Each structure stands twice: as structure tokens, then as C-alpha cells.
Amino acid sequence: MMDRVVKEMKSLTTPITVLVAAVGGQGGQLFSQWLFDAAREAGFCPTGVGLPGLSQREGATVYYLEFFAEPEATFLFSPFPEKGRVQILVGLELLELLRAVRDGYLAEDGIIIGSTHRVLTTDEKLPISGKFVTAEQVLPILQKQAKECIAFDAVQAAALAGLSERAANAILFGALASSGVLPFPIEAFRKAIEHYGVAVSFNLRAFEFGLRYRDWLPQLRNFDDFATQEWESLPEPRLPAQLLRKLEALSADDELTSILHQAAKWLCHYQDARYFGRYLECVEMVYERDEGRGTRDELLVTKEVARILAMRMAYEDAIRVAQLKTQRQRFERIRKEHQIGKETVYKVVDFFSPDWDELTGLLPFGRTMDTQKVTWDKGQGSQETKKDELPKLPSQSEEFKRAALQMKIETSSLMGYLLLNVLQLLKPLRPYSHRFKKEWAAINEWLEAVKRAIDKDYDLAFLVARSGELVRGYGRTRRKTLALWRTFMAFLKALEKQGVKVSEVVDLGEQFLALAMSGPEGAEKAWKFAKEKSDEMSG
């Protein structure tokens, strides 16, 4: 069917008609501009009109484009889509897709490409409503109305790719390019992203992931919703008036407001309101440097820092691990995954292997093992790292040599459950622990690098901000990924010292991040890439 539609489009007796439906703040305008430029790169004569909405849920946005074969034919452009004549309907939000279909814009042989992600309406957010439109309800309608329907949760796909929610529109753009519904070469789509010049490397990375949507779609459909269940169970935080005022002052648009409110909920659950206040202070420092740097930037650095900082601050220590192991949702998930009946008695046994750092991490003293600190802008390295040498990643053999205590706890038993709950009682002491000091030393190292990068180049700052996501996990994974981040910063410093242009530094940095996030062997691949490029530059 798609081949027939594409063939009909190529006949060019009529323009190709595309309708893009989104919600304010989702990047619908950017998506439409990319599509406009891709058509021009492919040799078509594009025309279009947009109705931008406000950056809020009530502001639905609609963009209509027509692609003509000859410039003389563009006078036939209709500023309004005709019902039953839209050949390709693109939706960045599920309800907006449904509205466009309900209004009858889609042609009989039309194609739908969209995201099943939901941005709730005001009515849906009201407690009195209690209901909202779901993908399970809408997808059968879309599939019935369209000859071909390519729909998936682009926000979840971004998470699967290790990217932020902002990558959703570029992932959909990649899926559109890969689907073949438009007679444009894939290179035309890539050049469109490069031409418009907004977070090019980041969006190209998301676009390339979208091109492979057929490969990861089955994995996305089996995406574990455990984190979603935990999130929905969290209570709304009660914040002091002072924090509420600061939160409101930093809420520049709906996207940043959403990030800050989610961080409040998460960090107050993880620690307390005072801890969230520390988070706001860090975000504010970046926001003050980021503000007023152009409408096309839209506080991208601040939003990435706000998102990643919340995750970095909620690091996994013994207290957090105990919390995760004893949550009700975990036992429900185990019962569901293993198809255990409600009347069946079962045991849950957890195996722990904490090393010395993890065992002593909650104490107020200890010896810091992270000595490979790299201060990028000041040209200083640690005493254990030679000049111009990339910090080494901890080897597997070194990690296995660390003394560790082997523990087996039956979490489903009364004693095992109580033992893990006792650990959670230590939460008020967390800010005084040695592990807390180590984590905040690393966080401040990252934040300082972001602030210095903002003063140099915005794309570079956006790259450094996103690099904070490299640091993740627990125990040996945390040590390895922190060493990898320091390798990343040392790599950028080496490139700068060699006189490499900032744009090339950003491109090479993007390649490093892509390799680092590529899978279990990503850290080693990224380190090898940095080493080869550094040697090549110096040689």
C-alpha cells in the first residue's frame, strides 16, 4: 500500500499534503521546519502555514504543508487543509492525532505517523474527572481510519535511546524518513536538521535512532513500567513558601515547570524539601547564565541540567537500594512476571555484594578513591594522571580485587524485610555521609564545567550538560561511569588545546556520547575512540 501511495506522490499531478498536529512546547514548529527544508533539499517546492499554540496544554498547534513539483504550481497552495485530502498525518501527541482524524482531514488512503505519548488536558488533570484518554482506546480508531499507522511512544523511545524527552520529535522525524512514505532521500532529512541549526548533533543522534525504529519497536512495547508505578504512588510534596516562590520564579515555560515539579516530587521522596532547595539553587545558577541567549535556544542547557541533576542527586546508596527492594510495587511486579497466583506463597531472596566503599559510604568519614579529577578549563589534572593523558577506566580485574561482603537476605521474610527497613531509617543522616560528599564533589565538578562552557559556546554547553547523564548506576558501575565522564572532559580539553574548532569539538563529543550510551561495552568503545582521536590530533 505504501508503495502505491509513494508512486502516486511521485506522479506529482497534485501536491503532497502533510498535516502536523502537536501541543505547544513539543517542538511541532521545529518538526515542520525540518520537513519544509527536507522537501526543498529533495527538489520539491514546499509551501506551508502554521498555527503555533501557547507553550501550555491548551495551546494546540497545527502546521499544514504542501510540496509541489514545480514552483509555478505553488500558487495553488491552500492555506487550510481540505477534509479528506491530507495524505500524511503526523502527530506528536495522541489526543491531537485523534482530533485531526475525528475532524476528517485524513484521506481514505492516508498514512498516520505519530507518538502515543499523552500530555493531559486541564479537564483530565482535575481530580473530579478521574479518567483520561489512553493509547489502548485511541490506537484501534487510528488504525481503522488510516491505511497505514506507525505509532509508538516517542518519549519512551527517547528514554530507551538514553536521550531526554526533547528528542521525541527528532525520533519521529527519523521514523518518517525511514518509513518511505515521502519520496525524499534520507540525506535530505539529515541536511534539513543541519540547515536549521538547532542542537544539530543532539537532534541528528535522535534522528538516527528513529531511522532504526523497526529494530527497537518490539523492545519498546515491552518497556518495563515499574518506574511509572513507583512514580504514581509518590505523594505530592509539601514545600515551604520560600521554595514555592523560587520554583515559580524559575518556571520560565511549561517544559521547565514540569521538570522542576517532577524533581520536587522525586527529591522530596528521596530525601526531603531541604534537599530539593539545594537542587533549586544549582538550577538557578545555570539559569542565570542561560537566560536571554536567544529564542531558538529556549533554555536548553538549563532544562538538561534540571533533568539530569535530579537523577544525579537521587543516587543509589544502601538506603535507596533498601527502599527499592522493599517497595510494594516490586512484589507485585514479581508476582505478575512469574505468573504467581494470589493464593500462592513464594519467597524473594536478594543477593548483595557490597564492597568497602559501599559498606562505609554511610559513615561520616572515609578515604576517597576518585583521584582522577580533571579541571577542564584551568588546565589542571590530578597528580595520578599525566599531562595530556586520558584518565583510565577501572579495569574489571581491579574491581574484582576489591574486598566485598557476600550477603543473602530473604526479603519476603519478616527478619529480612525489617533489616532492610532499618537501613531506610538512616535517611536523615545521608547528608552527613562520606558517600554524599563524594557525589556532590562530582556533581559540582560537572556543574562548573557546564557554566564555563556556556561562556564559550552554547552548543558546547548543551553537550557538556548532557554528558552529566553518563554517570549512573551503583558500586563498580558508578565508579566506571564517573571515570568515563572525566575521560570525556579530558578529551574535550585535549581537542581544545590542539586548536580544534568548537563545532568539531561538539561533533566529536557527540560521537563519544553516542558510543558511551551504545550498550554494555559502550564505555570501552568511547574511551578507545577518544584515545585514537587524541593520538591522531597530537601525531
Question: Overview of this structure, please?
Answer:
The protein has 539 residues and is α/β, with parallel strands linked by helices. The protein is built from 25 helices and eight strands. The strands form two sheets. A six-stranded mixed beta sheet has the order 2-3-1-4-5-6, sandwiched between helices. Strand 4, helix 3 and strand 5 (106-115) form a beta-alpha-beta unit. Helix 2 packs across helix 8 (186-196) and helix 22 packs parallel to helix 24. The longest helix is centred in the C-terminal third of the chain and has 23 residues, at 434-456. Mean pLDDT is 83; it is low at 4-10, 54-58, 125-130 and 368-385.
Question: Strands, helices and their partners?
Answer:
Layout (H helix, E strand, L loop, with lengths): L1 H10 L4 E8 L4 H14 L3 E7 L8 E9 L17 E6 L2 H9 L3 E10 L6 H4 L9 H11 L2 E5 L1 H7 L7 H12 L6 H11 L3 H12 L1 H9 L4 H8 L7 H10 L3 H17 L2 H18 L9 H14 L4 H8 L2 H10 L11 E4 L3 H5 L35 H6 L5 E4 L3 H11 L9 H23 L1 H10 L8 H22 L4 H15 L5 H17 L1
Parallel strand pairs: 1-4, 4-5, 5-6
Antiparallel strand pairs: 1-3, 2-3, 7-8
Helix pairs in contact: 2-8, 3-5, 6-7, 7-9, 8-9, 12-14, 13-14, 13-15, 14-15, 14-21, 15-21, 15-22, 16-20, 21-22, 22-24, 23-24, 23-25, 24-25
